[in-house]
TrEMBL record:
A biological process from GO: asparaginyl-tRNA aminoacylation
Gene Ontology cellular-component annotations: mitochondrion
Protein source organism: Meleagris gallopavo
UniProt keyword list: Aminoacyl-tRNA synthetase, ATP-binding, Ligase, Nucleotide-binding, Protein biosynthesis
Domain Aminoacyl-transfer RNA synthetases class-II family profile: 1-210
Keyword Kinase: no
Keyword ATP-binding set for record: yes
GO molecular function, one term: asparagine-tRNA ligase activity
Name under which the protein is recorded: Asparaginyl-tRNA synthetase 2, mitochondrial
Gene3D superfamilies to which the protein is assigned, alphabetical: Bira Bifunctional Protein, Domain 2
Amino acid sequence: MVEAELSFTESLQDIMQVMEHLFKTATSTVFSKCPRDVELFHKYVAPAQKGRLEQMLKNKFVTISYNEAVEILKQASQTFTFKPEWGCDLQTEHEKYLVKHCGEVPVFVINYPYDLKPFYMRDNEDGPQRTVAAVDLLVPEIGELCGGSLREERLPFLESRLQRLGLTDSYQWYLDLRKFGSVPHGGFGMGFERYLQYILGVDNIKDVIPFPRFPHSCLL
């Protein structure tokens, strides 16, 4: 997992911009620094992947809200194993459909339901359908690649939510971080194996794990 934290940011757009920049810069660097390795995969494993990636690098990523995502899924002609409903997490089959629906380009899904995400994500204070300032980046054939959010820096909001969850005692140390000083901030993580899987066109994530696991390989 590759992780990043952004201090002094109050905008989900800032996090999304860094996500997109990281993805495009990393991919361009891999192409320029490791051309023979990439060409090997694009020749024998995924012949069409190079063209798709080059096109993706030229275009802006698409952004939709969680509400819009659920409506798109409900109107889909495809039958899903997991029925899409507001308040439920998006499954991999949903994520892949959303990417396909948006033109096979990376898609940001923003503003997830309040009760669906961890306590530290910032409350949007947006009425009956309460949401948090969270974002997932979905990519073709993989689904979720990155996940992040603005962090809740307001102490009363954190105290209220932890009390409701019965976690105040366990997370008193976390409350102290806010009580004795904090700034608006956010962060995200990117799945490294999923990233390699996508840019190389590998079907099985187990084939891109840097430290392969197989029987008798982890002796204690």
